[in-house]
Please model this.
Amino acid sequence: MKNEIEVTGKTVDEAVEKGLKKLKIERKDAEIKILDEGKSGLFGLMGSTPALIKISSKKESSSSESIETKSSAEVTEEQKGAVETLSKILDLAGFKAEVSTSNTIAGAYINVSCQDSAILIGGQGQTMDAFEYLLKLILSKKESKSIKVSLNIDGYLDRRNEKVIKKAKELEEKVKTTGEPITLKLPSSERKIIHITLESSDCVETVSEGEGEDRKLIIKPKKA
Model:
């Protein structure tokens, strides 16, 4: 399976170097496709667009698919737009960051690598969530439809999801032991991860009930 990512940079060469570093490969071992050469705007800021490339290793990856990654999924035009938009926002805010996109079983991720990641993440991920909301707002207005992407700064979202997966396993065991269903009120992203984690369970099943903010997740014993 090829590990293929999209990377932005002020120039194509900068994007390539970032991609090589991220994949930990040499240029001779890389397959590179230039998606956008980028352009300089007024004073190097207003109206500028970053260079965007797709890079992968010529060597096959032996890593197995997990709940976090699904490398075979195609990157959409909306995700490319998300990478470009977030790159502009971070650049104008003074953050030097690498932005790429990937598809996971839990949805589309916009990945950010930055030395100032603690500032971008904030307490309990609140700043990251605010950036994600702003990004979705801009993209939705631009595309005239709702855009579903998740912001993942230096793997924070992965770590948060791991806690949700652990919680799902604990709740599965509790329902199995007590025989009683458990009802939870969670964000849609967490409900989805629990659904995925427990979909192959032999002893429990999950369903969502309600609408909007009142929507709940129910983990209940599986019928014989």
